[in-house]
């Protein structure tokens, strides 16, 4: 117990001393070279103190200095993952990715590799909230999240990666729907139908599928493709009969003297045979 208290006292004294140092120099310790006189442990503690003060940018710099001053050491490894965390918390996603990827390149077998991969995925994922953004980020987030799920299935981050993967996948479907509705509103029915088809074929597990099927009923009726419209309505009724989308489609079809049923031989009738009837041919 005495030894434990002595060690705790040592770290407390170090923290207080560095806090006082950082409080003055906060401001200029990057240029002063003050970190070069410290041990890697002391620099690491300085980085933690800066994080607690909400100075993520300074913390990230401090953690990366360990790697520069004490390369290939255990503290450099710990500093690198903390730098990735600090960059990410600061919203500096590009540098967060760089630090996380560097950790994976240098220390792929270490215990924090799963967390580095998770941070790498988050650096993409946290930039895709706006459906109007470049969807390249969404694809990169999906790839990085898939790596967490497949390479580190037993890690504490796998479950959250699965949730975020599903949300990112849904996000791509939402983008297709947004573009499809844009074309539909302007009477460009063929372009709209192509977007809604992508959702039905490639994103059928997302929440956008019922609307996509209804929009196909709308667009195909507008194009005079009654068989495709009826078949889309049949798939919608078989899977989402209680939804408002099906009720709207049913009203559109019956208003034209049509019924929701699989008609003809088209891409939707193939889906109907496979998914509804179980005829995999």
From TrEMBL:
<dbReference type="InterPro" id="IPR011990">
    <property type="entry name" value="TPR-like_helical_dom_sf"/>
</dbReference>
<comment type="function">
    <text>Part of the outer membrane protein assembly complex, which is involved in assembly and insertion of beta-barrel proteins into the outer membrane.</text>
</comment>
<dbReference type="InterPro" id="IPR017689">
    <property type="entry name" value="BamD"/>
</dbReference>
<keyword id="KW-0732">Signal</keyword>
<feature type="signal peptide">
    <location>
        <begin position="1"/>
        <end position="25"/>
    </location>
</feature>
<keyword id="KW-0998">Cell outer membrane</keyword>
<dbReference type="GO" id="GO:0009279">
    <property type="term" value="C:cell outer membrane"/>
</dbReference>
<comment type="subunit">
    <text>Part of the Bam complex.</text>
</comment>
<dbReference type="Pfam" id="PF13525">
    <property type="entry name" value="YfiO"/>
</dbReference>
<feature type="domain" description="Outer membrane lipoprotein BamD-like">
    <location>
        <begin position="39"/>
        <end position="232"/>
    </location>
</feature>
<dbReference type="GO" id="GO:0043165">
    <property type="term" value="P:Gram-negative-bacterium-type cell outer membrane assembly"/>
</dbReference>
<keyword id="KW-0472">Membrane</keyword>
<dbReference type="GO" id="GO:0051205">
    <property type="term" value="P:protein insertion into membrane"/>
</dbReference>
<keyword id="KW-0564">Palmitate</keyword>
<dbReference type="InterPro" id="IPR039565">
    <property type="entry name" value="BamD-like"/>
</dbReference>
<comment type="similarity">
    <text>Belongs to the BamD family.</text>
</comment>
<keyword id="KW-0449">Lipoprotein</keyword>
<protein>
    <recommendedName>
        <fullName>Outer membrane protein assembly factor BamD</fullName>
    </recommendedName>
</protein>
